[in-house]
Write a structure and sequence with these properties.
The protein is mainly alpha-helical and 311 residues long. It is 57% helix and 4% strand. The protein folds into two domains: 2-182, no CATH class; 196-305, no CATH class. Strands 3-5-4 form a three-stranded antiparallel β-sheet. It has a two-stranded parallel sheet with strand order 1-2. A hairpin with a 2-residue loop joins strand 4 and strand 5. The protein is elongated and about 80 Å long. The relative contact order is 0.08.
């Protein structure tokens, strides 16, 4: 509703027509590609970056554009010209044209939201639960719309403030509840918990890298333990990528996700490609970091619990 308010209600101060138009195009275009697909999606996937990324990541752009437009909408609620000024301005043809364009933009956003909701509804495994959420969402949207209209019609500072606070509460409280239900809550002690394997690596790595196969040790999590791993989830330089592919042609699972494939485990670990890496890093090896210096336990587990590892 704040997005629609940003497009329909005129705001005092600097003209933001250009910024609003850009964000509307970004929002509608991203949502259209994401939820409609078709020819536009096919053309987009031929471009660099988009050709190697899942289209679902466009949700970040949709959320960003919607958030920026919502901020414009909140500003419109706090600083509206008011109903009388807007109705008086409609006597001018240019003002009527501007209002028509803004209304068309707002209607387009509403239609995109409705289409996105219907698209999700067709694919949801729980239509009953989604229906309850939609009814709650429409009720909240109606309340927000009422507050926006009151702020615009009353033309009082206190009315705008009350409307802004009310909209903030109506949006924030359900959002917090949704986030708590969506993201599980765990104790801090369970976050990247240290294991006997990590303690073993602390005593044996001496600044070198360890190699994992497949999803063992959750590639990319080594940063949380201040340890160096061969693979992971990060951008790689062409030289590093070439070295890994020389050892295992299937090591780059995605452009940013790497790890030794189980099928090529023995060949990759015994590959001579790592010889150059060892000689190149021996002179620049960082000093070992002890677990005690990071405030982590240093108790050595029984020998039977030590895993076998290859460096």
């Amino acid at each position: 509703m704040l997005v629609v308010a940003a497009l329909v209600i005129r705001t005092r101060g600097q003209d933001r027509t250009g910024s609003l138009a850009f964000m509307v195009v970004l929002l509608v275009g991203s949502a259209g590609v994401l939820y409609v697909g078709g020819v536009a999606l096919g053309l987009l996937q031929q471009l660099p970056v988009f050709s190697t990324n899942p289209v679902a990541r466009l949700r970040v752009i949709v959320g960003f554009a919607a958030a920026v437009l919502a901020a414009f909408g909140l500003d419109a609620v706090l600083r509206p010209y008011g109903a009388r000024a807007d109705l008086t301005a409609l006597r001018k043809p240019r003002a009527r044209t501007t209002l028509a364009l803004r209304a068309a933009g707002g209607l387009t956003v509403v239609l995109v939201v409705i289409y996105a909701v219907l698209s999700v509804r067709r694919q949801t495994p729980d239509p009953v639960g989604l229906g309850l959420q939609l009814r709650e969402g429409f009720a909240l949207a109606a309340c927000c719309a009422l507050l926006v209209v009151l702020a615009w019609a009353l033309e009082r500072r206190w009315a705008s403030t009350v409307a802004a606070v009310g909209i903030f509460v109506l949006v924030t409280v359900p959002a917090i509840g949704l986030a708590r239900a969506w993201w599980p809550q765990n104790d801090v002690e369970l976050y990247y918990q240290r294991t006997a394997t990590h303690e073993f690596l602390d005593t044996r790595l001496d600044g070198q890298r360890y190699a994992t196969v497949g999803q063992v040790m959750l590639p990319g999590s080594s940063t949380a333990y201040a340890q160096r791993s061969l693979g992971g989830h990060a951008f790689t330089t062409p030289e590093w990528r070439e070295l890994m592919l020389a050892a295992d042609p299937e090591m780059m699972l995605t452009p940013t996700y790497s790890g030794i494939s189980p099928a090529n485990r023995d060949v990759a670990l015994d590959s001579g490609a790592w010889t150059g890496l060892a000689s190149a890093t021996s002179s620049t090896r960082p000093p070992p970091v002890s677990p005690a210096s990071r405030g982590m336990p240093t108790r050595r587990p029984p020998a039977s619990r030590w895993p076998s590892a290859r460096r």
